């Protein structure tokens, strides 16, 4: 049987390459201002975005080095060498002290922007966790606890960020408020959110926020989150309301998307077609419980197989996992594990599920897997080792399962983030 793993990996790599800062950033950068370029970046691609901005301004445009300053806060292990923009590596998905300091320094630098300066804000997914600036009355530990509870609840990322925004001094438009004296605030973003909603990318630090404190309280109630009294009081304090349309902070603020999940999914779809597959494009905005979405996709694959079709089923978006066990993994590994359980008797189906940032769930380490691959060799190893996919699913322990079969996807940090890419190949 033909090995489909090289093609699966090529499809994943094509999706990542379509959103890399080296490719997408420079065409959108503004001309040199009269004063300084103050670059503030956050997220998993922040280091790469900062380096690309440096090459554009210092090398291509010849900007004097002293006129470029900035801070890029990224995930641990995702830093790259820079010349003028300081790179801070911080915690993700759970914030840490480095992110706390990075956010404080970012707000202070934004406040120094003058009427001749360009405030250049570069955002990728992960910025919400990297920029951590608790509101007055909330300790860092309390904010961390809220983050952990939200991540374990199974709440979609939009709901997670609604709560985060109302407990923050930098999210929900507040960074724009800090930098309101700049000549212009230009935000260039790589989207990692369904439907590319600007206020959701890195929790919208420079755009109006459509959500309110009441929404955040409703989400806490919906998932029965155990929160400290201080957090409860903060969510009832009107002074913690996020910035709304018409706020003076946005008078000279501009927002532009420079890469989005659909572009990356389109790149993978094209490659699959070039490889001779009929394609089923399920869209770049899928949400839902990973194992349930996996079951739906498995049914599609089995229907195509029964009809004798050679099909590639592709999708993007961001799935969730409601954690009930104490294992390791993330939504992409859980999706692949659920597939393995359903498709174990179908040697002519292969699949890959991976996060385009290079890390799927995990402990926040650069060495975390991005997802997993399954095919006939996976099914053979399952049988030989007596591995029960359902038992691993019940414990949310997909990483251990795929360590045993040798099927973890391990690309390392990709320096971008446009959500997940999932491919099922039916031959």
Question: What does the radius of gyration come to?
Answer: 22 Å
Reading the helices and strands in chain order gives HHEHEEHEHHHHEHHEHEHEHEEHHHEE
Number of domains: 2
Instruction: Quote the distance from N terminus to C terminus.
Output: 10 Å
State the CATH topology of the largest domain.
Answer: glycerate kinase, domain 1
Strand content bin: 15-25%
The CATH class of the largest domain is Alpha Beta
CATH superfamily of the largest domain: MOFRL domain
Counting H and I runs of at least 4 residues, what is the number of helices? 16
- How can the largest sheet be summarized? 6 strands, parallel
How much helicity do the residues have? 25-40%
In terms of quaternary structure, the protein is: single chain
Strands across the major sheet, in which order?
3-2-1-4-5-6
Q: Return the structural class.
A: alpha/beta
Describe this structure in words.
The chain is α/β, with parallel strands linked by helices. It folds into two domains: 174 residues, 3-Layer(aba) Sandwich (glycerate kinase, domain 1); 172 residues, Rossmann fold (3-Layer(aba) Sandwich), CATH 3.40.50. Helices cover 38% and strands 16% of the residues. The chain is built from 16 helices and twelve strands. It has a six-stranded parallel beta sheet, sandwiched between helices. A six-stranded mixed beta sheet has the order 7-8-12-9-10-11, sandwiched between helices. β1, α3 and β2 form a beta-alpha-beta unit. α7 packs across α9, α12 packs parallel to α13 and α13 packs across α16. The protein is globular, with a radius of gyration of 22 Å.
């Amino acid at each position: 049987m033909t090995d489909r793993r090289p093609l699966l990996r090529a499809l994943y790599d094509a999706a990542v390459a379509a959103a890399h800062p080296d490719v997408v950033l420079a065409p959108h950068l503004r001309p040199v201002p009269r004063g300084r370029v103050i670059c503030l970046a956050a997220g998993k691609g922040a280091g790469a975005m900062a380096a690309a901005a440096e090459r554009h301004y210092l090398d291509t445009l010849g900007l004097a080095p002293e006129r470029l300053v900035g801070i890029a806060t990224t995930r641990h292990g995702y830093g790259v060498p820079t010349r003028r923009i300081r790179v801070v590596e911080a915690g993700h998905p759970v914030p840490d002290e480095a992110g706390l300091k990075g956010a404080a320094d970012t707000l202070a630098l934004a406040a120094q922007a003058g009427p001749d300066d360009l405030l250049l804000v570069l955002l990728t997914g992960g910025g919400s966790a990297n920029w951590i600036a608790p509101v007055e009355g909330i300790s860092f530990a309390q904010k961390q606890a809220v983050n952990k509870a939200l991540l374990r609840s199974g709440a979609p990322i939009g709901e997670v960020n609604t709560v985060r925004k109302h407990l923050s001094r930098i999210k929900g438009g507040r960074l724009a408020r800090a930098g309101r004296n700049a000549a212009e605030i230009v935000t260039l973003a790589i989207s990692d959110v369904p439907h590319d909603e600007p206020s959701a990318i890195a929790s919208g630090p420079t755009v109006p926020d459509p959500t309110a404190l009441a929404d955040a309280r409703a989400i806490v109630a919906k998932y029965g989150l155990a929160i400290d009294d201080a957090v409860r009081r903060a969510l009832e304090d009107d002074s913690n309301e996020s910035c709304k349309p018409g706020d003076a902070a946005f008078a000279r603020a501009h927002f532009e998307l420079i890469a989005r999940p659909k572009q990356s999914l389109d790149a993978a779809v094209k490659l699959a077609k070039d490889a001779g597959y009929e394609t089923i494009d399920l869209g770049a905005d899928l949400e839902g419980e990973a194992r349930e979405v996996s079951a739906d996709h498995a049914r599609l694959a089995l229907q195509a197989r029964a009809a004798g079709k050679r099909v590639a089923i592709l999708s993007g978006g961001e799935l969730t996992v409601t954690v009930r066990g104490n294992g390791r993994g993330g939504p992409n590994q859980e999706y692949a594990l659920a597939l393995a359980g359903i498709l174990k008797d179908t040697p002519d189906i292969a699949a890959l599920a991976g996060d385009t940032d290079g890390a799927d769930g995990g402990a926040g380490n650069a060495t975390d897997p991005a997802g997993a691959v399954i095919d006939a060799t996976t099914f053979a190893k399952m049988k030989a080792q007596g591995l029960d996919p359902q038992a691993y699913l019940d414990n949310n322990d997909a990483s251990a399962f795929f360590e045993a079969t040798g099927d973890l996807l391990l690309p390392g940090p990709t320096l971008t983030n446009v959500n997940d890419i999932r491919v099922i190949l039916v031959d």
